[in-house]
Amino acid sequence: MSPRTSKASMNFTTMAQADVPQGRNGKHKEIVTQILSDLDQVPAGTAIKVPLANLAESKEKVRSALNRAIHKSRRDVATASDEIFLYVWNKTE
Predict the structure, then answer these.
(1) Burial tier of 55 (Cβ tally within 10 Å: 0-12, 13-18, 19+)
(2) Coil, strand or helix at 18
(3) Residue 5 above 70 pLDDT?
């Protein structure tokens, strides 16, 4: 066989695309979903206070996950934090 016609062996197994799981439930999905749900319920000018002690991960990781969800859903949200809380609010125009 010439090098052009030889086929390299597979490195990984295969499966039908229809059987591939769709979507991703990351480690931060629960807290991010809770924050976004609360943001949908608060009036303009109100921030929610998320206790940092309740976070399973660092505030930076949760803030990053929240930022990804915010951009994906095209929301306009701001965050701030201190040593005790992560503050999240809907930006007003």
Answers:
(1) middle
(2) helix
(3) no
